[in-house]
Each structure stands twice: as structure tokens, then as C-alpha cells.
Amino acid sequence: QVQLVESGGGLVQAGGSLRLSCAASERTFSRYDCGWFRQAPGKEREFVAAKRWNMGTRYYADSVKGRFTISRDNAKNTVYLQMNSLKPEDTAGYYCAALLSARAQGDERGITEYDYWGQGTQETVSS
Predict the structure, then answer these.
(1) Between the CA atoms of 27, 59, 69 and 78, what dihedral angle is there, to the nearest 10 degrees?
(2) Taken in order 81, 87, 93, 98, is the CA torsion positive or negative?
(3) Distances from the Cα of 7 to the Cα of 19, 20, 76, 92, 93, angstroms
(4) How confident is the prediction along the chain (127 residues), in pLDDT tens digits per residue?
(5) What single string gives the DSSP state of each residue in the chain?
């Protein structure tokens, strides 16, 4: 069982930046695909960004493309989400997700693709 713990959320003004971190308990985390999702009050959870374990390709939602960057440090078993030029509509709970790459179905944007989820970290962007 992989445990994921997010951190780094908080309150920031519009136009500001935050970096979220997701630390994994699994020492072979380098073989896991990772994703970030978010959920605003009253809305469904939505895809934000994803990165396969062995590929340089990153995937982003259109709403965050050019502003957010997903990265990972396999030596630290940690995946990051750098968020720049934040907007009030980015306000949400942010969730880290992971999947053993060997089990991947090819839907990196899909919630059901991932087996493990963190508890989430709240981010609020004030206007």
C-alpha cells in the first residue's frame, strides 16, 4: 500500500505562486506514474497534470497549461506541482495520485487510472 502525503497548500494572492509537494512511502516510487487533481467546492474532481515514470512527456489540463509544472525527484520519492500566475479559479483541494506504471491503462487524465491517493492540500487564491 502506497501512502501519499501532500503539503504546500495555503493562501496566496492572484498572480502569486505556490509549490505543492507529494511525498510517497514507496521506495520504488520511481516506477509509479503520478498525477495531480483538484476539486473545488461543489464541483467534481478534475485532472490537473500527470507525468509517466519513465517518459519525459508531461500532461496538463488546458486551464493550467503554461502556468503549472509537474516534476518529480525520484531520489526523494516526491512529486511536485509548481503553480505560477495563480488565479482565483485555481482555488481547490489538490490531490496527488499514483499508479504502478505496469498497471497503467493509458488514461493519465482519468481519475480511475490511479490506485493511490493522498488526503489533499487546500489552496486558496484571493483576488
Answers:
(1) -10
(2) negative
(3) 9, 6, 14, 14, 11
(4) 899 999 999 999 999 999 999 999 988 888 999 999 999 999 999 999 999 887 778 999 999 999 999 999 988 999 999 999 999 999 999 999 999 988 888 899 999 999 999 999 999 999 9
(5) ---EEEE---EEETT--EEEEEEES-TTGGGEEEEEEEE-TTS--EEEEEE-SS---EEE-TTTTTTEEEEEEGGGTEEEEEE-S--GGG-EEEEEEEEEGGG--S-TT-GGG-SEE---EEEEEE-
